[in-house]
Specification:
The structure is a homodimer. Helices cover 39% and strands 15% of the residues of chain A. By secondary structure, chain A is α/β, with parallel strands linked by helices.
Chain lengths: 465, 465
């Protein structure tokens, strides 16, 4: 009779017995169809209880290694397919998460510094949410997000951006990247999408990774051109009219109306308005969004808390025109909202209780101060006579145009050799035949002011090496 | 000269002036090309300071309503496109978020009851995370999730599921629904996907909404069949072998090897193993996942914290075989992780400090007790002689098969009339020509035991009306 040396068992006896039998079946020692001893006999033979054998047999039955025939007993299942499968000759190395590149100075850093996140208020609101909203935290969130947060966002958009948006039009998601994929499902993957060139590369990357046809349209000093859209045969255009990245252009109202007229020319044309950093116009009132002058339901407004709060919080939203909101509920409301209820409620309280407005005001002051100090530092540096600043009063970055014969690529190489991370305009240009001006993007939102003078000196050296 | 009655200003003078001029431009009162008064003259005329006029002009320039000509002055921009756009004759009604249907009794409720979520521990860990990890919370998370969480998941999978998974193979995302869309991008949208019939409808819905060809393959008593896969010409099959929903079938090891052999037959074939509720096998050891017997990198393992913690927390993960992990980093690592850093760190601590294991053990006891009470309640009810229970020891639901001539549809209608929510097997069947047995799915994870007896009595009445 089948026997095993149970004195070698380290865990429970049943588990050891289960492992032994399983191993023998997997190695073919016990053949398909072979009958196993009855529980009682096997137990007596091994000197253990019948229950132990039964538990082991039950587990093997659950996993399908054994089967029972009523009144006959336990038999080995046929797993002969196992012997046909050979391991791979060579397995790929398991990728290690890449360590971040080491820079001595980073002029492209756009993270929020820990000093600038309202941790204590956030912690307090999270604690209150957890203690007061247990029921709501466990209740399913509608696909577009919990109503409480959507109401808070609608009220914020009204007071801060002068927008009329009903909470029913607002769809909350885990980052704008996710929302783009929802928009592709809403509009249709067969549409021709179009983005600005130059522009933030990730947007085109996301459309293309989702197998949507994504083209580029050229910009002039007022933003993307209708001519460019026509050349690209665009149907859906994705733009950031308030503050284009990286050029900083604010699209004037005349161009906005041209784009709206273009969208109105044909059914199925839409404008995705990406308003990613509109909160940080440092002088004057915020620029009104296109959504507020759209009277034919052609504009989808997209915004995020990545710039206004922190990118690592992963909450974004969009405002769909009514007929698209209807389409969303019809076609896509089966999706669960991708943001945790815990954070939806916490953020809603953060907005409703006025903390968000205070935070934005505080950050505007901080960024304005930061910008002023950066400009002063540039003025004092040896670089000052070899660069012009191109900026439009808004956002958290500006362009530096160097007076040099060197192209952007060569300059960037020199900066890298000095361990300076500094993105050039060409980094955001999708047309390979473009010229490569020595224009660089200085992001001052999280710049290290103490090291800036030294970095500028190094940059100045790079120009004249 | 242009003039406005500034005595009617309610906010700041500059804002009122800005609004007046803007309105006149938008209505064509001020025509394109028309010159505006100089700042000084206008200010003197209106009896206000030059600064006020300048601020209003600056804002109008930023928005593009005015432009300047050096040494000449301020001119009205051409926004004549505005007059070509007519508002929509009829706008769609803004959809209201649907109120939940009112049931008196819900036998399909799968939410986690607030009593069963570890709120106080979660609150404590969240507080600790916020106070101790400020730097990390603001640092960008890699596309696959923060390493700290992936390590915790890898260790959990090792001890709880006997799986070997390197943190580099683990990809964290905001829900399995999101991860499916990542898998489609990883495998290619042109592949033929295949899901189980019957099965959880949402899975096919997601593939189809992402424009992937998704087919159904029939099941027998051991799960999806290779024959069904061949008929469907499947390339990627999405299954839940540990515990199929709704039938409760655990796929035996022989069928698992058949499927692996099928996958190995051809390059590009893969198995997505959806292990959604493996933590809650109530008797015996957990069933080993297919991932652990896959020696040719054919299985993608997917799991979620929706069942084991709460669906509203929105954290799921997958374990990619090494070569697919490599492909992920190559093609898709530009995506930001969709889960907030705050919750990634909190969950990592929850797992690392042993709370997750304790929680699962506690919930297994709770569910076992719950199940026992539900079974006893059925036994005592008038229904007991008219139904059989089909269940496989695992998961949070079982099937009730009613002895009646009525079809599932008719029964369901009768239940609904009595305000009882009870899903039938046919609700999960995708083949319209199927028969419709009177089999219903009883989800006991969050069932209201106090009302159950009354509900069973009503159900019994429905059978005999």
């Amino acid at each position: 009779m089948l026997t095993y040396d149970l004195s070698r068992a380290q865990g429970s006896l049943y588990e050891y017995l289960y492992q032994c039998i399983k191993k023998d079946i997997r190695q073919g020692v016990l053949a398909a169809g072979e009958q196993l001893p009855s529980k009682r006999n096997f137990a007596r033979n091994l000197g253990i209880s019948t229950i132990t054998v039964e538990t082991a047999y039950d587990q093997l039955i659950s996993e399908g290694y054994l089967y029972t025939v009523p009144k006959k007993g336990y038999f080995v299942a046929d797993i002969s397919e196992i012997f046909k499968i050979k391991p791979l000759a060579k397995t790929a190395a398991i990728p290690r998460p890449q360590p971040q590149k080491e820079y001595e100075f980073d002029l492209s850093n756009h993270h929020v510094s820990p000093e600038n996140f309202p941790f204590s208020i956030w912690a307090k609101l999270m604690r209150e949410t957890i203690s007061e909203k247990k029921e709501e935290l466990m209740a399913g969130s509608p696909g577009g997000g919990i109503l409480f947060l959507r109401e808070a966002i609608a009220a914020h958009l009204h007071s801060f951006r002068g927008m009329e948006a009903d909470p029913g039009q607002i769809i909350v998601g885990a980052g704008t990247e996710y929302l783009y994929s929802i928009l592709i499902q809403l509009f249709g993957r067969e549409k021709r999408y179009c983005v600005e060139n130059p522009g933030y590369q990730k947007i085109a990357q996301i459309y293309r990774s989702n197998d949507a046809d994504c083209r580029f349209a050229a910009m002039d000093g007022q933003g993307i051109t209708v001519d460019g859209l026509k050349k690209a045969q665009a149907e859906i255009v994705h733009i950031s009219p308030t503050h284009h990245f990286p050029t900083g252009i604010t699209m004037p109202v005349s161009r906005r109306y041209e784009l709206l007229a273009w969208a109105n020319e044909q059914e199925g044309r839409y404008i995705i308005e990406d308003d990613y950093d509109s909160e940080f116009r440092l002088n004057g009132r915020p620029i009104p969004p296109m959504q507020s002058i759209d009277i034919r339901e052609k504009v989808v407004y997209v915004n995020t808390f990545s710039k206004s709060l922190a990118p690592t919080i992963r909450i974004s939203y969009m405002v769909l025109p009514p007929h698209l909101a209807e389409r969303f509920y019809e076609k896509l409301s089966f999706y669960s909202c991708t943001v945790s209820n815990f954070e939806q409620y916490t953020l809603a309280q953060f907005i409703k209780k006025g903390y968000f407005e205070k935070h934005i005001n505080r950050m505007r002051l901080f960024y304005a101060r930061q910008r002023k100090e950066v400009l002063e530092c540039i003025k004092k540096s040896p670089l000052s006579s070899f660069c012009n600043m191109i900026e439009k009063d808004s956002g958290l970055h500006f362009l530096l145009c160097f007076q040099t014969e060197l192209c952007g690529k060569e300059l960037k190489k020199r900066f890298q050799e000095k361990k300076i991370h500094f993105a050039s305009l060409a980094d955001y240009d999708q047309a390979p035949d473009c010229d490569d001006p020595p224009v660089f993007i200085l992001n001052y939102s999280n710049i290290d002011l103490e090291k800036l003078a030294a970095a500028l000196e190094k940059i100045s050296l790079c120009l004249h090496e």
